Amino acid sequence: MTKTRIDYDVKDLKLASSGKNRIEWAEKFMPVLRSIKDRFAREKPLKGVKMACCLHVTTETANLMITLKAGGAEAYLCASNPLSTQDDVAASLVADYKIPVFAVRAESNDVYYQHIDACLDPHPSITMDDGADLVSTLHTKRRNQAPEIIGSSEETTTGVIRLKAMEKKGVLLFPVLAINDSNTKHLFDNRYGTGQSTIDGIMRATNILLAGATLVVAGYGWCGRGVARRASGMGANVIVCEVNPLRALEAVMDGYRVMPMSRAARIGDVFVTLTGDINVIRTEHFKVMKDGAIVANSGHFDVEIDLKSLDRLSKKKREIRANVVEYSFDGKRILVLGEGRLVNLAAAEGHPASVMDMSFANQSLGAEWLLKNASRLDKKVYALPARIDMEIARLKLASMGIAIDKLSPEQRHYLTSWELGT
Ligand code: ADE
Asked: For residue 156, which atom of ligand 1 is closest to its CA?
Protein backbone atom coordinates (compact mmCIF):
# COMPACT_ATOMS: atom_id res chain seq x y z
CA MET A 1 0.00 0.00 0.00
CA THR A 2 1.36 3.45 -0.84
CA LYS A 3 1.60 5.79 2.05
CA THR A 4 0.75 9.47 2.04
CA ARG A 5 2.17 11.77 4.74
CA ILE A 6 -0.23 12.34 7.59
CA ASP A 7 0.31 14.91 10.29
CA TYR A 8 -0.74 12.68 13.15
CA ASP A 9 -2.81 9.62 13.89
CA VAL A 10 -4.23 9.29 17.38
CA LYS A 11 -7.42 7.73 18.68
CA ASP A 12 -9.38 10.83 19.67
CA LEU A 13 -8.21 14.41 20.25
CA LYS A 14 -11.07 14.84 22.76
CA LEU A 15 -9.03 12.72 25.19
CA ALA A 16 -6.39 15.45 25.38
CA SER A 17 -7.43 17.10 28.65
CA SER A 18 -7.07 13.88 30.64
CA GLY A 19 -3.73 13.26 28.91
CA LYS A 20 -2.46 16.75 29.77
CA ASN A 21 -3.29 16.32 33.47
CA ARG A 22 -1.46 13.00 33.53
CA ILE A 23 1.57 14.36 31.64
CA GLU A 24 1.82 17.20 34.17
CA TRP A 25 1.45 14.72 37.03
CA ALA A 26 4.37 12.66 35.70
CA GLU A 27 6.49 15.78 35.23
CA LYS A 28 6.41 16.41 38.99
CA PHE A 29 8.35 13.16 39.45
CA MET A 30 10.91 13.92 36.73
CA PRO A 31 13.13 16.65 38.21
CA VAL A 32 16.29 15.62 36.34
CA LEU A 33 14.55 15.69 32.98
CA ARG A 34 12.95 19.01 33.97
CA SER A 35 16.36 20.58 34.65
CA ILE A 36 17.55 19.34 31.25
CA LYS A 37 14.41 20.77 29.63
CA ASP A 38 15.08 24.18 31.22
CA ARG A 39 18.65 24.20 29.92
CA PHE A 40 17.54 22.93 26.49
CA ALA A 41 14.97 25.76 26.31
CA ARG A 42 17.76 28.30 26.90
CA GLU A 43 20.49 26.74 24.76
CA LYS A 44 18.52 24.99 21.97
CA PRO A 45 21.18 22.29 21.43
CA LEU A 46 18.89 20.34 19.06
CA LYS A 47 17.82 23.34 16.98
CA GLY A 48 16.36 22.27 13.64
CA VAL A 49 17.21 18.59 14.12
CA LYS A 50 14.57 16.18 12.83
CA MET A 51 14.10 13.21 15.14
CA ALA A 52 12.02 10.04 14.83
CA CYS A 53 11.18 8.45 18.19
CA CYS A 54 9.69 4.97 18.52
CA LEU A 55 8.91 4.62 22.23
CA HIS A 56 6.07 3.52 24.48
CA VAL A 57 3.59 6.39 24.30
CA THR A 58 3.22 7.14 28.00
CA THR A 59 3.12 10.21 30.24
CA GLU A 60 6.86 9.83 30.82
CA THR A 61 7.65 9.64 27.12
CA ALA A 62 5.48 12.73 26.63
CA ASN A 63 7.81 14.61 28.97
CA LEU A 64 10.81 13.41 26.98
CA MET A 65 9.20 14.61 23.73
CA ILE A 66 8.45 18.00 25.32
CA THR A 67 12.11 18.22 26.40
CA LEU A 68 13.38 17.42 22.88
CA LYS A 69 11.05 20.05 21.44
CA ALA A 70 12.24 22.58 24.05
CA GLY A 71 15.77 21.84 22.81
CA GLY A 72 14.73 22.88 19.30
CA ALA A 73 14.15 19.43 17.77
CA GLU A 74 11.36 18.64 15.33
CA ALA A 75 10.49 15.30 16.89
CA TYR A 76 7.97 12.72 15.62
CA LEU A 77 6.65 9.93 17.87
CA CYS A 78 5.28 6.46 17.13
CA ALA A 79 4.66 3.51 19.46
CA SER A 80 7.23 0.81 20.19
CA ASN A 81 4.49 -1.67 21.08
CA PRO A 82 0.91 -1.83 19.77
CA LEU A 83 -0.55 -2.32 23.26
CA SER A 84 1.38 0.23 25.31
CA THR A 85 -0.05 3.47 23.89
CA GLN A 86 -1.94 5.71 26.30
CA ASP A 87 -4.45 7.30 23.91
CA ASP A 88 -5.08 10.35 26.07
CA VAL A 89 -1.36 11.11 26.18
CA ALA A 90 -1.07 10.76 22.39
CA ALA A 91 -4.02 13.16 22.00
CA SER A 92 -2.57 15.75 24.36
CA LEU A 93 0.85 15.69 22.69
CA VAL A 94 -0.85 16.56 19.41
CA ALA A 95 -3.47 19.01 20.70
CA ASP A 96 -1.60 20.77 23.52
CA TYR A 97 2.07 20.44 22.63
CA LYS A 98 1.87 20.36 18.78
CA ILE A 99 4.03 17.24 18.66
CA PRO A 100 3.15 14.83 15.82
CA VAL A 101 2.20 11.42 17.20
CA PHE A 102 1.29 8.29 15.24
CA ALA A 103 -0.01 5.75 17.75
CA VAL A 104 -3.34 4.18 18.64
CA ARG A 105 -3.65 1.58 21.40
CA ALA A 106 -4.33 -1.93 20.00
CA GLU A 107 -3.40 -0.88 16.45
CA SER A 108 -2.92 -3.76 13.99
CA ASN A 109 0.53 -4.87 12.89
CA ASP A 110 0.06 -3.12 9.54
CA VAL A 111 -0.88 0.17 11.16
CA TYR A 112 2.01 -0.20 13.62
CA TYR A 113 4.46 -0.29 10.70
CA GLN A 114 2.60 2.49 8.82
CA HIS A 115 3.18 4.63 11.89
CA ILE A 116 6.87 3.81 11.88
CA ASP A 117 6.95 4.88 8.23
CA ALA A 118 5.11 8.09 9.10
CA CYS A 119 7.93 8.98 11.53
CA LEU A 120 10.61 8.20 8.95
CA ASP A 121 8.88 10.03 6.07
CA PRO A 122 10.15 13.45 7.26
CA HIS A 123 13.76 12.16 6.84
CA PRO A 124 15.05 12.43 10.43
CA SER A 125 18.77 12.66 11.15
CA ILE A 126 18.52 11.19 14.67
CA THR A 127 16.34 8.27 15.69
CA MET A 128 15.39 7.00 19.14
CA ASP A 129 14.23 3.40 19.60
CA ASP A 130 12.88 1.13 22.31
CA GLY A 131 13.38 -2.27 20.67
CA ALA A 132 15.23 -1.25 17.47
CA ASP A 133 12.21 -1.10 15.12
CA LEU A 134 13.29 2.20 13.50
CA VAL A 135 16.83 0.91 13.06
CA SER A 136 15.53 -2.38 11.59
CA THR A 137 13.33 -0.48 9.13
CA LEU A 138 16.31 1.70 8.15
CA HIS A 139 18.36 -1.46 7.52
CA THR A 140 15.68 -3.21 5.44
CA LYS A 141 12.82 -1.35 3.73
CA ARG A 142 14.34 2.13 3.91
CA ARG A 143 18.08 1.58 3.49
CA ASN A 144 18.25 4.60 1.17
CA GLN A 145 17.66 6.82 4.24
CA ALA A 146 20.43 5.25 6.34
CA PRO A 147 23.17 7.65 5.10
CA GLU A 148 21.06 10.56 6.41
CA ILE A 149 21.20 9.24 9.99
CA ILE A 150 23.81 10.89 12.24
CA GLY A 151 23.06 8.44 15.01
CA SER A 152 20.39 6.49 16.79
CA SER A 153 19.79 5.73 20.46
CA GLU A 154 18.40 2.51 21.90
CA GLU A 155 16.54 2.25 25.20
CA THR A 156 16.24 -1.44 25.97
CA THR A 157 18.34 -4.55 26.63
CA THR A 158 16.75 -6.51 23.76
CA GLY A 159 17.43 -3.72 21.28
CA VAL A 160 21.03 -3.30 22.41
CA ILE A 161 21.69 -7.05 22.06
CA ARG A 162 20.45 -6.90 18.44
CA LEU A 163 22.48 -3.81 17.63
CA LYS A 164 25.66 -5.27 19.09
CA ALA A 165 25.07 -8.39 16.95
CA MET A 166 24.72 -6.11 13.90
CA GLU A 167 27.95 -4.29 14.79
CA LYS A 168 29.77 -7.62 15.17
CA LYS A 169 28.58 -8.78 11.76
CA GLY A 170 29.67 -5.45 10.23
CA VAL A 171 26.17 -4.62 8.97
CA LEU A 172 25.41 -1.59 11.12
CA LEU A 173 24.92 1.44 8.85
CA PHE A 174 25.30 4.27 11.41
CA PRO A 175 26.43 4.87 15.03
CA VAL A 176 24.13 3.80 17.84
CA LEU A 177 24.06 4.90 21.45
CA ALA A 178 23.14 2.12 23.90
CA ILE A 179 21.18 4.03 26.54
CA ASN A 180 20.56 0.74 28.36
CA ASP A 181 24.30 0.48 29.05
CA SER A 182 24.24 3.56 31.29
CA ASN A 183 24.24 2.61 34.97
CA THR A 184 21.60 5.24 35.65
CA LYS A 185 19.39 3.35 33.18
CA HIS A 186 19.65 -0.40 33.71
CA LEU A 187 20.39 -0.44 37.45
CA PHE A 188 17.22 1.53 38.17
CA ASP A 189 14.73 1.34 35.27
CA ASN A 190 15.26 -2.37 34.63
CA ARG A 191 15.48 -3.41 38.27
CA TYR A 192 13.16 -1.09 40.21
CA GLY A 193 11.00 0.05 37.28
CA THR A 194 10.32 -3.37 35.77
CA GLY A 195 10.21 -4.90 39.25
CA GLN A 196 7.37 -2.67 40.42
CA SER A 197 5.46 -2.17 37.17
CA THR A 198 5.39 -5.88 36.31
CA ILE A 199 3.82 -6.69 39.67
CA ASP A 200 1.49 -3.71 39.11
CA GLY A 201 0.39 -5.15 35.73
CA ILE A 202 -0.27 -8.59 37.23
CA MET A 203 -2.22 -7.09 40.12
CA ARG A 204 -4.34 -4.77 37.97
CA ALA A 205 -5.16 -7.58 35.52
CA THR A 206 -6.01 -10.25 38.10
CA ASN A 207 -6.28 -8.74 41.61
CA ILE A 208 -4.76 -11.95 43.00
CA LEU A 209 -3.07 -12.17 46.39
CA LEU A 210 0.66 -12.64 45.93
CA ALA A 211 1.32 -13.58 49.55
CA GLY A 212 1.70 -17.34 49.63
CA ALA A 213 1.59 -17.74 45.84
CA THR A 214 4.40 -19.49 43.99
CA LEU A 215 5.73 -17.06 41.40
CA VAL A 216 8.15 -18.29 38.74
CA VAL A 217 10.54 -15.74 37.23
CA ALA A 218 12.21 -16.82 33.98
CA GLY A 219 15.40 -14.82 33.45
CA TYR A 220 17.54 -13.32 36.20
CA GLY A 221 18.91 -10.24 34.47
CA TRP A 222 18.30 -6.82 36.01
CA CYS A 223 14.58 -7.02 35.17
CA GLY A 224 14.15 -10.54 36.55
CA ARG A 225 16.05 -9.62 39.70
CA GLY A 226 13.68 -6.69 40.18
CA VAL A 227 10.53 -8.77 39.76
CA ALA A 228 11.83 -11.55 42.05
CA ARG A 229 12.66 -9.06 44.79
CA ARG A 230 9.33 -7.22 44.66
CA ALA A 231 7.31 -10.46 44.50
CA SER A 232 9.26 -11.86 47.41
CA GLY A 233 8.65 -8.65 49.36
CA MET A 234 4.92 -9.21 48.92
CA GLY A 235 5.15 -12.70 50.34
CA ALA A 236 5.35 -14.80 47.17
CA ASN A 237 7.49 -17.93 47.10
CA VAL A 238 9.80 -17.14 44.22
CA ILE A 239 11.33 -19.71 41.87
CA VAL A 240 13.94 -18.57 39.34
CA CYS A 241 14.63 -20.30 36.00
CA GLU A 242 17.93 -19.39 34.31
CA VAL A 243 20.31 -20.72 31.65
CA ASN A 244 23.36 -18.77 32.84
CA PRO A 245 25.13 -20.58 35.72
CA LEU A 246 26.47 -17.36 37.28
CA ARG A 247 23.06 -15.74 37.35
CA ALA A 248 21.47 -18.97 38.61
CA LEU A 249 24.02 -19.10 41.43
CA GLU A 250 23.31 -15.48 42.29
CA ALA A 251 19.58 -16.26 42.44
CA VAL A 252 20.29 -19.20 44.81
CA MET A 253 22.32 -16.96 47.11
CA ASP A 254 19.68 -14.23 46.91
CA GLY A 255 17.46 -16.83 48.60
CA TYR A 256 15.32 -18.18 45.74
CA ARG A 257 14.69 -21.73 44.60
CA VAL A 258 16.29 -22.35 41.20
CA MET A 259 15.19 -25.11 38.83
CA PRO A 260 14.46 -25.79 35.15
CA MET A 261 11.12 -24.64 33.73
CA SER A 262 10.10 -28.28 33.21
CA ARG A 263 9.89 -28.60 37.02
CA ALA A 264 8.77 -25.08 37.85
CA ALA A 265 5.87 -25.41 35.37
CA ARG A 266 4.26 -28.06 37.60
CA ILE A 267 4.25 -25.96 40.77
CA GLY A 268 3.95 -22.30 39.75
CA ASP A 269 0.81 -20.24 40.33
CA VAL A 270 2.12 -17.23 38.38
CA PHE A 271 4.78 -17.19 35.65
CA VAL A 272 6.66 -14.14 34.40
CA THR A 273 9.12 -14.28 31.49
CA LEU A 274 11.92 -11.69 31.20
CA THR A 275 14.59 -13.48 29.21
CA GLY A 276 14.66 -11.71 25.82
CA ASP A 277 14.46 -15.12 24.13
CA ILE A 278 11.76 -17.08 22.34
CA ASN A 279 9.43 -19.88 23.48
CA VAL A 280 10.56 -19.90 27.09
CA ILE A 281 7.14 -21.25 28.08
CA ARG A 282 5.85 -23.72 25.47
CA THR A 283 3.62 -26.78 24.88
CA GLU A 284 5.48 -29.16 27.21
CA HIS A 285 5.13 -26.59 30.03
CA PHE A 286 1.47 -25.69 29.42
CA LYS A 287 0.62 -29.41 29.53
CA VAL A 288 1.91 -29.83 33.09
CA MET A 289 0.76 -26.52 34.56
CA LYS A 290 -1.82 -26.37 37.34
CA ASP A 291 -5.41 -25.40 36.63
CA GLY A 292 -5.66 -21.60 36.81
CA ALA A 293 -1.95 -20.92 36.26
CA ILE A 294 -1.35 -17.28 35.30
CA VAL A 295 1.20 -16.58 32.58
CA ALA A 296 2.65 -13.13 31.81
CA ASN A 297 5.57 -11.68 29.91
CA SER A 298 7.61 -8.62 30.78
CA GLY A 299 10.35 -9.06 28.15
CA HIS A 300 10.39 -6.61 25.24
CA PHE A 301 8.89 -8.81 22.51
CA ASP A 302 5.81 -11.02 22.66
CA VAL A 303 7.82 -14.13 21.75
CA GLU A 304 8.64 -15.54 25.17
CA ILE A 305 5.34 -17.36 25.66
CA ASP A 306 4.49 -19.69 22.78
CA LEU A 307 0.89 -18.56 22.39
CA LYS A 308 0.48 -20.21 18.99
CA SER A 309 1.01 -23.62 20.54
CA LEU A 310 -1.29 -22.78 23.46
CA ASP A 311 -3.92 -21.76 20.93
CA ARG A 312 -3.52 -25.07 19.08
CA LEU A 313 -3.72 -27.02 22.32
CA SER A 314 -6.85 -25.27 23.55
CA LYS A 315 -10.45 -26.24 22.95
CA LYS A 316 -11.78 -22.88 24.13
CA LYS A 317 -10.49 -19.35 24.49
CA ARG A 318 -12.30 -16.36 26.00
CA GLU A 319 -11.51 -12.95 27.46
CA ILE A 320 -12.51 -13.35 31.08
CA ARG A 321 -11.40 -9.92 32.39
CA ALA A 322 -9.70 -6.94 30.78
CA ASN A 323 -6.22 -8.09 29.76
CA VAL A 324 -6.88 -11.72 30.79
CA VAL A 325 -7.56 -14.47 28.24
CA GLU A 326 -8.51 -17.90 29.52
CA TYR A 327 -7.37 -20.89 27.45
CA SER A 328 -9.04 -24.25 28.27
CA PHE A 329 -7.88 -27.78 27.46
CA ASP A 330 -7.95 -31.18 29.20
CA GLY A 331 -10.33 -29.77 31.82
CA LYS A 332 -7.95 -27.06 32.96
CA ARG A 333 -7.49 -23.34 32.36
CA ILE A 334 -4.38 -21.26 31.66
CA LEU A 335 -4.74 -17.49 32.04
CA VAL A 336 -2.61 -15.32 29.75
CA LEU A 337 -2.17 -11.65 30.62
CA GLY A 338 -1.90 -8.81 28.10
CA GLU A 339 -1.69 -11.12 25.06
CA GLY A 340 1.81 -12.10 26.15
CA ARG A 341 3.02 -8.55 25.49
CA LEU A 342 4.81 -6.43 28.11
CA VAL A 343 2.41 -6.87 31.02
CA ASN A 344 3.62 -3.73 32.79
CA LEU A 345 2.58 -1.55 29.87
CA ALA A 346 -0.36 -3.59 28.55
CA ALA A 347 -2.12 -3.96 31.90
CA ALA A 348 -0.60 -1.07 33.89
CA GLU A 349 1.09 2.25 33.12
CA GLY A 350 4.70 1.13 32.73
CA HIS A 351 7.50 2.23 35.01
CA PRO A 352 6.84 5.10 37.41
CA ALA A 353 7.92 8.56 36.28
CA SER A 354 10.53 8.81 39.01
CA VAL A 355 12.63 6.05 37.45
CA MET A 356 11.94 7.05 33.82
CA ASP A 357 13.36 10.44 34.88
CA MET A 358 16.85 8.93 34.73
CA SER A 359 16.24 6.83 31.60
CA PHE A 360 14.97 9.83 29.68
CA ALA A 361 17.67 12.12 31.06
CA ASN A 362 20.02 9.64 29.36
CA GLN A 363 17.96 9.80 26.14
CA SER A 364 17.87 13.59 25.96
CA LEU A 365 21.55 14.04 26.86
CA GLY A 366 22.24 11.17 24.44
CA ALA A 367 20.66 13.08 21.54
CA GLU A 368 22.80 16.10 22.41
CA TRP A 369 25.91 13.89 22.66
CA LEU A 370 25.22 12.22 19.29
CA LEU A 371 24.92 15.60 17.63
CA LYS A 372 28.08 17.01 19.26
CA ASN A 373 30.18 13.94 18.48
CA ALA A 374 28.72 13.00 15.09
CA SER A 375 31.90 13.68 13.12
CA ARG A 376 34.07 11.29 15.13
CA LEU A 377 31.66 8.36 15.51
CA ASP A 378 32.00 5.08 13.59
CA LYS A 379 29.28 2.58 12.67
CA LYS A 380 29.45 1.10 16.15
CA VAL A 381 27.49 0.78 19.37
CA TYR A 382 28.57 3.35 21.98
CA ALA A 383 27.72 3.94 25.64
CA LEU A 384 27.31 7.43 27.06
CA PRO A 385 30.51 8.65 28.77
CA ALA A 386 30.73 7.77 32.48
CA ARG A 387 30.84 11.46 33.42
CA ILE A 388 27.31 11.98 32.00
CA ASP A 389 26.06 8.83 33.77
CA MET A 390 27.55 10.10 37.07
CA GLU A 391 26.11 13.56 36.55
CA ILE A 392 22.61 12.08 36.16
CA ALA A 393 23.08 10.14 39.42
CA ARG A 394 24.29 13.32 41.12
CA LEU A 395 21.32 15.33 39.88
CA LYS A 396 18.88 12.59 40.94
CA LEU A 397 20.34 12.47 44.47
CA ALA A 398 20.23 16.27 44.71
CA SER A 399 16.56 16.24 43.62
CA MET A 400 15.88 13.80 46.47
CA GLY A 401 17.64 16.09 48.95
CA ILE A 402 20.32 13.48 49.62
CA ALA A 403 23.88 14.65 50.29
CA ILE A 404 26.86 12.28 50.11
CA ASP A 405 30.47 12.37 51.30
CA LYS A 406 33.38 13.79 49.30
CA LEU A 407 36.88 12.32 49.20
CA SER A 408 39.43 14.32 51.17
CA PRO A 409 42.67 15.21 49.31
CA GLU A 410 44.41 12.57 51.44
CA GLN A 411 41.86 9.91 50.46
CA ARG A 412 42.03 10.85 46.79
CA HIS A 413 45.83 10.56 46.91
CA TYR A 414 45.59 7.15 48.62
CA LEU A 415 43.32 5.81 45.89
CA THR A 416 45.76 6.80 43.16
CA SER A 417 48.93 5.58 44.89
CA TRP A 418 50.40 2.10 45.32
CA GLU A 419 53.29 2.68 47.70
CA LEU A 420 51.28 2.59 50.93
CA GLY A 421 50.80 -0.95 52.28
CA THR A 422 50.15 -2.48 55.71
N1 ADE B 1 9.14 1.48 29.49
C2 ADE B 1 8.72 0.99 30.66
N3 ADE B 1 7.96 1.88 31.32
C4 ADE B 1 7.87 2.97 30.53
C5 ADE B 1 7.21 4.21 30.67
N6 ADE B 1 6.50 4.51 31.75
N7 ADE B 1 7.35 5.09 29.66
C8 ADE B 1 8.07 4.77 28.58
N9 ADE B 1 8.71 3.63 28.40
C10 ADE B 1 8.62 2.72 29.37
From this structure: 1
